[in-house]
Design goal:
With 252 residues, the protein is an alpha/beta fold. It folds into 2 domains: 202 residues, NAD(P)-binding Rossmann-like Domain (Rossmann fold); 33 residues. The protein is 44% helix and 17% strand. The chain has 8 helices and 7 strands, in the order E-H-E-H-E-H-E-H-E-H-E-H-H-H-E. The chain has a 7-stranded parallel β-sheet, with helices on both faces. Strand 2, helix 2 and strand 3 form a beta-alpha-beta unit. It is globular, with a radius of gyration of 17 Å. The protein binds nicotinamide-adenine-dinucleotide. The site of nicotinamide-adenine-dinucleotide (NAD) has 27 residues, from helix 1, helix 4 and helix 6.
């Protein structure tokens, strides 16, 4: 087992990718704390994970006190944390910059940038030397895409935060990397497709699929494969890296 004896915190742990990662971490021998917004979501995820080694906490990642609370809970449960999957995120509205609602821009930046920043701020001190932090960016963190100003800006910002953290944490041999998934099967892509073409989301789905040169959407367990590699000692000399997993997606 690749994560035997390790401890992990997963934000957005009740969501598509977070839940798959938590499941894999448990299967690889880790103890896990999942963090997500809303008791019901967290309890449903705990029910699905069905393990004595998993714990849950409802917290809003945009809130400093909530973030301090989940970091304190990790310390109470585990002592030190080996793996921090800083993953919670939202897609936001689809609209050109000229029509993009100000409040929606702020909402996306709050979760995707402030949430990742606060996670690093409070979790780094709670981590064991030699640990691994994985922040979820996106293909949208490396290139532009029409209609997605807030999401694209926020996911580029995640790369900036990762780069600073990877330098600052290197003295403690803590590695910090980003993952950059392309479209993954699940609710977030469904929501985006409805935003792209409210009258015909299936057509939007077909257009996205056409760009995926490897022929299909990515499965969440394939994202969990990459996250597990970055969480494990197999990636011990990788830090400051932007790891793309996008089915060779074409276009910007
Ligand atoms: N699904 C994709 O195709 C895709 C592609 C690239 C990147 N991503 C990124 O992957 C990450 C996970 O997304 P997903 O696909 O699992 O989507 P998801 O919506 O299934 O999961 C996201 C989770 O984050 C939680 N969350 C949102 N706001 C929160 C807040 N303020 N506080 C605490 N939790 C909050 C949600 O409740 C949800 O459980 C996100 O950062 C997303 O941007 C997803």
């Amino acid at each position: 087992m690749r994560l035997q004896g390790k401890t992990a915190v997963v934000t957005g742990g009740a969501g598509n990718i977070g839940l798959a990662a938590a499941q894999r971490f448990l299967a690889e021998g880790a103890r896990v704390l999942i963090v997500d917004r809303g008791e019901d979501r967290v309890n449903e995820a705990l029910r699905q994970l069905a393990s004595n080694d998993v714990h849950g906490l409802s917290a809003d990642v945009t809130d400093g006190d909530d973030t301090a609370r989940y970091a304190a809970e990790a310390q109470r449960l585990f002592g030190q944390t080996d793996i921090f999957f800083n993953n919670a995120g939202i897609a936001g509205a689809v609209a050109p910059i000229t029509a993009y609602p100000d409040a929606e821009f702020d909402r996306v930046m709050a979760v995707n940038v402030r949430g990742v920043f606060l996670g690093l701020k409070h979790m780094l001190p709670a981590m064991r030397d030699g640990g691994s932090v994985i922040c979820t960016s996106s293909v949208a963190g490396l290139r532009g895409s029409a209609g997605m100003a807030a999401y694209v800006a926020s996911k580029h910002a995640v790369v900036g935060l990762m780069r600073v953290a990877s330098v600052e944490a290197s003295a403690r041999r803590i590695r910090v990397n980003t993952i950059h998934p392309g479209p993954v099967e699940g609710d977030m892509m469904g929501e985006l497709e409805r935003g792209m073409a409210p009258a015909d989301p299936k057509a939007a789905h077909a257009l996205v699929l056409q760009r995926m040169r490897l022929g299909r959407f990515i499965e969440r367990k394939e994202i969990a494969d990459l996250v597990t590699f970055l969480a494990s000692d197999e990636s011990r000399m990788i830090s400051g890296a932007t790891m793309v997993i996008d089915a060779a997606m074409a276009g910007g």
